[in-house]
Amino acid sequence: MSGPLSALLRRRIQAAGPITVGDYMAEALGHPEHGYYMTRDPLGAAGDFITAPEVSQMFGELVGLWCAEMWRACRAPDPVQLVELGPGRGTLMADALRASRLAPEFTRALSVNLVETSPVLRERQRETLAGQADPTAIHLVFSAHGLPVSFVRKGDVYQQQVIATVARVMAGLPNPHSLAYQSKVGPVKWLTPATDQHIRSLAAQGIKRVAVVPIAFVCEHLETLYELDILIRDIAVEAGIATYLRVPALGVHPRFIRALADIVHHADRYALA
Fold this sequence. Notes:
By secondary structure, this protein is of the alpha/beta class. The chain has helices spanning 4-16, 21-30, 52-55, 57-73, 91-100, 104-109, 119-129, 149-153, 158-170, 195-204, 222-239, 254-265, and strands spanning 80-85, 110-115, 139-145, 177-182, 209-213, 243-246. The chain has twelve helices and six strands.
């Protein structure tokens, strides 16, 4: 071990004798000038390790729902303190608060406290939680599977259908939004912008909070669970996006199943070929 922190610890030991492991770790991690957490964001692809909330938003959402349920089981005290020790970037708390909106009486009684020693991470937490009070401040990025441009030029209506679907979704939402395409393979020109490049562009414009909507994907698979949840999430964080959310695919949601059944039962109405 070398460097200014090593010299500091040596002088301390020489002056006062042996130190405990706890004292050593306190200095190594939290020294105001040389401590590991004091000078950097250690999480993600650009850092040294990852945590469960940074891998999947479901972790924090489940925690939030559990907290709401335990609050009810404790006879709904008001007020109630929700305290997180070492909250990192604030990702877990942001996901937990979003899920807990399903219990509005819980969120009304709630007071959130984050206990953090790192000034770098405190700033990230402020950025992450800044949009919690106003969900319309989140930029929606609709991410569809890409398609070679040559297909579109030959008459494929896929891009038109995606654009029309996005327009129908946004008819009831006030959020800023954009459309991008992912999963390009091969050297030929595909539809643009690419989702990863578009995320970087949004960050360069100063946008801090995005929610990615897999608009052309029906179920969860490699392109949502890995490409969107891990690869593009890391790109977003590295680019400066403070809040990166990914909307779940439709899967077996009852309304989606009913819609499919309606199309089958009334095929003539939808003029299916």
